[in-house]
Write the structure tokens for this entry.
Amino acid sequence: MMVIVGVLKETGVFEYLAIWAAKRARGRPFRLMVLLVLITAVASALLDNVTTVLLIAPVTFLVCERLAVSPVPFLIAEAMASNIGGAASWSAIRPTSSSPAAAA
């Protein structure tokens, strides 16, 4: 998983998606937050949660600085979206550690 994330980081796909979201939002902070949250949730469903947030957060700081808004609400929303997106992935289900039969 980390190899895939490393390759995606080198290609600049996360930066591209964040810049695309900023352009689509047309300077509206709430609209930008919604787009970044969706990107984070989808990426977390496909990749690792923590890594996704670590790759999206610097871009969020950059975009928020350009728009002169606080990045805190964006980061909180992205963290929540990462958890929700990660729960939607197939790797979030670990039957060996969560089933009652494994505990016995």
Notes: The mean pLDDT is 80.
